[in-house]
Amino acid sequence: MKRKKFILPEGQMPTRWYNMVADMPHAPRPYLNARTHKPTTMADLSIILAEELARQELSTERYIEIPEEVQQIYRIWRPAPLVRATGLEKALDTPAKIFFKNEGVSPVGSHKPNSAVPQAYYNHKQGIRRLTTETGAGQWGSALAFAGRHFGLDVEVYMVRVSYDQKPYRRLMMNTWGAQCFSSPTTKSEAGRAALARDPHCMGSLGLAISEAVEMALREPDTTRYCLGSVMNHVLLHQTITGEEAILQMEMADAEPDVVIGCIGGGSNFGGIAFPFLRKKFCEGKAIRVVAVEPESCPKLTRGHFEYDYGDMSGYTPMIPMYTLGHEFQPSAIHAGGLRYHGAGAIISQLLHDQAIEAVAVPQTETMQAGILFARTEGIIPAPESTHAIAAAIREAEQAKREGSEKTILFNLSGHGTIDLYAYEQLLAGNLRDDRPTDEEIARTVERLEKLM
Amino acid sequence: MKRKKFILPEGQMPTRWYNMVADMPHAPRPYLNARTHKPTTMADLSIILAEELARQELSTERYIEIPEEVQQIYRIWRPAPLVRATGLEKALDTPAKIFFKNEGVSPVGSHKPNSAVPQAYYNHKQGIRRLTTETGAGQWGSALAFAGRHFGLDVEVYMVRVSYDQKPYRRLMMNTWGAQCFSSPTTKSEAGRAALARDPHCMGSLGLAISEAVEMALREPDTTRYCLGSVMNHVLLHQTITGEEAILQMEMADAEPDVVIGCIGGGSNFGGIAFPFLRKKFCEGKAIRVVAVEPESCPKLTRGHFEYDYGDMSGYTPMIPMYTLGHEFQPSAIHAGGLRYHGAGAIISQLLHDQAIEAVAVPQTETMQAGILFARTEGIIPAPESTHAIAAAIREAEQAKREGSEKTILFNLSGHGTIDLYAYEQLLAGNLRDDRPTDEEIARTVERLEKLM
User: Fold this and answer.
1) Whole-angstrom Cα distance, residue B354 to residue A412?
2) Which of A345, A425, B70, B121 has the fewest CB within 10 Å, making it most exposed?
3) Nearest alpha carbon to residue A370 among A402, A338, A336, A403
4) Do A376 and B7 touch (CB under 8 A)?
């Protein structure tokens, strides 16, 4: 009998996060202050982030201890299982071994609380009483609602109106954990009022929601800070708990991955699984390929430019050196809402620039078909974001079959799709579209980046 | 540091189910053939159920081996965690230790696949190619869709129209696993056509959906059988994997429960956690209280009569000796749809009659308030059904505090509430109602039972 799951005992849960910056062939260029164009300082960052998070953002230490209070909450669902995808292997009739790390077991249903919990903790420790954030599809907002509740923090989530209307379950989840969730644009902020003055029926955007969340945080600097769910170094740092666990679990399974795969929006679940394995590649000389999978409709890694850009659409964040389609790029409305982001975090972008990782773009229909095959062979209905990793894993397994090679594949299942079932309905009804931006469309938003510097 | 979770290694997952009948002080009276009123035979049962399931229904063997093929699918999510509810304990400031078994970790989100998987397996082994079933809120239909897929079976689910319209996510889940889900009444069956002829706008009922599912199975006896998700002995047998695991996990936690709690609809999650602990009570003399928790709006155990009754509303099933409100009783539309059942399975009813277990009825508002406290302290949003067990556990913990006793409480968290969030919205909005049937309402449906015999 092949073992199905590899679960670390609670006592073996890793107790430190891994900072990729310590071992990169070339460190990423610094963030720049958007106004002065000088390297961003602790002081710049601490205006919007908790101090310890600002410190982690700029840190070059290899390991950072996970506070005991954070570990306690992690233990609600961590260590998360590593699973051998025996059903999928059988269906593909492949000689490849396929493993996945199941981050969908968290109460929120995704990897997002891995960073939401420490962000809430450090803010609480600093005496902050209120957090603001934005959310698109709702995974990050749910995670911060969950995390904030554990430390008695008030959490305000600005949710893009189109999602607020379409995804009531995510909003209800935030309310159940005691957070407030507002349909953005609101009349609470100047940014929101200005947007509504221009268009009373404005459906919102992630950029606008960030503007509202940051503005509301800046207004109460004694009590309030802003939190972000991806892109920045400290967020990816927290996510490395995933890869650190996976390394120990692959040892339990007596296997080593030849290829490690994650889907990519801003980079949080990808960095989480990839960075610890990249350490093995850089420091132990292991021959591990690492693949980031993006939607063909939002191809920042495969077709974007490596430039300084804003992390948000309004220029509130520092300027980040990244592979980007330009912060004004508007990806089509694919179901994988968490991957509709114009750029990739600085560390990931530098790694791609140095050819230490690979990138692949997959069309929506292929990803959702991979998702349904996974649901029917492994039982778990994956989030539309995670189906991108599955699709790339299937491509690798099929290649292994053609070559007759016994490749070992590991991918990160970033979340379950239990409340994203509408995407599956659209696939089954034959209504899914594959959008691929033209070169002209990409050039239009990328070209404007030159004016920023 | 207190340990949070107790997870059995996969290799220690129990490999046999426990048959409560073997150790009961008094065996339940036999089922009766609804037409002849003679004890039901294998031949009677095998018309609608797979033979092995009919055999298990009548079995008195203490243990039944779990087939390896079933164990393999169980391993997708089992062993399920036993969790120490440290957050809830702290919020209640109680000296009691509270543990819960988390059955919400299955791909379906509840305990239901514990029986759906073996039911699909035995039907497949017998050469059956198609299964029919009914579903109310959708948990059981989803579980059979999930299970049937693993054995290549066609699954047809008749879903009560009111739920079909209100709960699209459950239907989409069934479709994603490849099952067909029909809004009952349909025009496919005579029962459905007759109902639609009487009322073209008929919103359906569980009784009618059962009638449709059984009729469609009987029509193709060479290829098709019917499956049921609760009430019957073989279903409760399969669910004992829960309690068998919990016994081993409580040993890991170095604790023994003073009280074991489960919510009750037909009895499947309650029996699953309770029966193995009742074995310890009956065979090892352990002083364990076992408490079944029902909604105050459907109080079969606390206010029903102990009589022979039909398991369904149309009289398709054998007559079952049970605590019942009468098969025509219409409970109010509480959010815990899985508990809106008029009777309790024969074994559970006999145990209550013999005072080997206790029963308690809890109003809806109290259960949902318990659910929100649990979500905010333990992180997991519980299903409305499971909040009944939580409410009773809280009552026990508060009593322990008043008495200053160090009671150990174990309850079964039968499922998560991620796609039942509407119930929480109603609670937060102050819109929940507590319905309690009058004595006259109960008498009206119970009195008619006399005419059945």
Assistant:
1) 52
2) A425
3) A336
4) no
CATH code, B430: 3.40.50.1100
Would B171 be classed as within a structural domain? Answer: no
Q: Which residues contact B43 (CB under 8 A, 6 or more apart)?
A: none
Q: What is the DSSP letter of B230?
A: S
Neighbours of B340 (CB within 10 A): 21
Residues 6+ positions from A93 with CB-CB distance below 8 Å: A401
The pTM score is 0.95
Closest residue in A to B369 (Cα) is: A176
Average pLDDT over residues B179-201: 94
B192 falls within a domain: no
Domain region containing A350: 5-12+67-109+239-446
Amino acid at A188: K
Phi, psi angle pair for A178, to nearest 5°: 95, 5
Residue pLDDT, tens place only, B238-257: 999 999 999 999 999 999 99
- Do the domain assignments include residue B150? no
Q: What is the pLDDT of residue A236?
A: 98
Contact assignment for A422 to B178 by CB distance below 8 Å: no
Chain A and chain B share a number of CB contacts under 8 A equal to: 108
pLDDT tens by residue, B64-120? 999 999 999 999 999 999 999 999 999 999 999 999 999 999 999 999 999 999 999
Residues of chain B with C-beta less than 8 angstroms from the C-beta of A1: 68, 72
| Number of independent structural domains in chain A | 1
Q: Name the band, by pLDDT with cuts 50, 70 and 90, for residue B328.
A: confident
Q: Which of B146, B166, B381 best tests the A interface by mutation, with the highest count of A CBs <10 A?
A: B381
CB B28 within 8 A of CB B349: yes
Q: Nearest to residue B328, comparing CAs of B310, B305, B346?
A: B310
Whether residue B180 is contained in a domain is answered as: no
Task: Please list every residue in chain A whose beta carbon sits closer than 8 Å to the beta carbon of residue B164.
Answer: none
Among the partner residues B149, B175, B419, nearest to A418 by beta-carbon distance: B419
Average pLDDT over residues A422-451: 92
The residue whose two tokens read 């920045």 is: A232
ipTM over 0.95: no
